[in-house]
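in:
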């Protein structure tokens, strides 16, 4: 697919060709468009659109990307996410990021972590 065909397909899918798409190097254009279609536009994904966008929002918040936070928040709302779900996705991102910083920063023993994780899993599966 050439650049013009990709841009025509983008315009048909999005109503316009966003400026940031026009900046993508031509040798990456088809690959990036295919990924965008698969992970943003695809309706019959294993993960429903609303949840994909909430995951994207959590990642964007952790990465502190203003552009991606706005993009994924807007699409999450478009797919039916409530303000409470958006807040929870961002809180989960903060929570997970905090534990990652703590565990990595203290060099917590990985073998101990995995052993305890397995024990917790066995205990919780009994409930």
């Amino acid at each position: 697919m050439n650049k013009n065909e990709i841009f025509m397909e983008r315009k048909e899918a999005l109503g316009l060709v966003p400026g940031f798409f026009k900046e993508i190097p031509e040798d990456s254009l088809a690959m990036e468009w295919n990924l965008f279609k698969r992970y943003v536009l695809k309706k019959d994904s294993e993960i429903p659109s609303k949840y994909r966008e909430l995951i994207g929002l959590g990642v964007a918040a952790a990465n502190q990307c203003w552009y991606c936070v706005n993009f994924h928040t807007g699409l999450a709302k478009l797919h039916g996410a409530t303000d409470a779900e958006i807040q929870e996705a961002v809180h989960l991102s903060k929570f997970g990021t905090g534990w990652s910083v703590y565990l990595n920063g203290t060099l917590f023993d990985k073998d101990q972590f995995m052993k305890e994780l397995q024990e917790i899993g066995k205990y919780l599966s009994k409930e």
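note: The chain has seven helices and no strands.
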